[in-house]
Amino acid sequence: MNKKLLSVLLALVLVLSFSLMTAVPVAAASEVWVDGSNTTSPWDGTEANPYQTIQEGITAVDPGGTVNVAAGTYNERVDINKSLTLEGANAGLPGSGTRGSESIINPQGLALDFGVLIYGADTIATFDGFTVENYERVGILAGSYSLDQEDYPNPSVVHILNNIVKEPIGQQNNNCIQVGFGTTGTIIGNEVMGANLESPDWSGSGILVSCSSNVLVSNNYVHDCEGGIQVMGWPVSGLMGPAEDNIVEYNLVVDNESGIVAQQNAIGTIIRYNDALNNASGIVSVGWFTYPGYFPSGTQIHFNNIVGNVSYGVRSYAWDDGEPEQVDATDNWWGHASGPSGEYGRVNPAGKIVGKGDAVSDNVDWDPWLRRSVWTNPAGKDLPPSRR
Length: 388
Known about the structure:
Layout: H1 3-22, E1 31-34, H2 54-60, E2 65-69, E3 72-74, E4 78-80, E5 84-87, E6 103-105, E7 114-118, E8 124-128, E9 131-132, E10 138-142, E11 157-161, E12 164-165, E13 175-180, E14 184-188, E15 191-193, E16 205-210, E17 215-218, E18 221-223, E19 227-233, E20 243-244, E21 247-249, E22 252-254, E23 258-264, E24 266-267, E25 270-272, E26 275-277, E27 281-287, E28 300-302, E29 305-307, E30 312-318, E31 327-328, E32 364-365
Parallel strand pairs: 1-2, 2-5, 3-6, 4-7, 5-8, 6-9, 7-10, 8-11, 9-12, 10-13, 11-14, 12-15, 13-16, 14-17, 15-18, 16-19, 17-21, 18-22, 19-23, 20-24, 21-25, 22-26, 23-27, 25-28, 26-29, 27-30, 31-32
């Protein structure tokens, strides 16, 4: 071999070897970082050189990976279209608890309906530790009937954890958190507020589970909404099917029009260990005979503190004609040891109302009842004086 050629080859080998030894490490695709305050390139998603937007982090991370988002305000809508974990600065800390500086998703001015949209038929996603504000319709949406299912198929499983979701700024659909239409998962540790819809037929929801089954709604603080936590099913097959076997437990629902609602074709909803306080109605079962023609069934309401609700502690009724569900609401605390009040509450043999707790409507089985409050301490909030 020509000695000159040999020396050139050896030089190339040395250069390549040196390059490999001195290459700058890049972020593992299984974990990336985002910090909107990082104004200096390179933006490669490493902890030292994070991306500037959340969407860049989602695009870069491998399916099943983790995107870590620093505190700050991110003026964008977040689309989660793959399996991943998205963690804000307060991941693991309940929305109503003590928290540090927030990772804020703020699409205001972008004319966007949603703050966070989760989709993809095989998507299993966790969204943990953010504040979502200034969205038009839904703060966190995971499953919709109205979106094109070819472009935005509903996700498989979502875990919506430890977020603060503020009131919508639009007047259409107006839900803080919505999981629906076949999507399942958990909604835990969030604080949601201010979902109100100016409509004669529909109401805004702090948390809405619509046409989905086996969803756990737990340890949330829901306040100042039309419907605090609503579980709703529909009477047809496919996406518009029933909502079955959902569990609503350990939540604090305060100052809502209706605290917790099982609506239409909701089947086997378990409502337990919640504090329903100072709502217009605490817990409600309601159906509509003519449209869509279904009432809830199998609703179980047990071991809740139902106190200070203005009209009813528990109400079962129909919007129009039809036979409301006979609700099992035994073993609850009604705010007084004497039991629930009202004409359908506790009365003596002479017909005198002797119950002094929250009132119940017709179609509610409330006996036996609890003579003292249930220790729930939902959502990590301080208990009112009557519960201490």
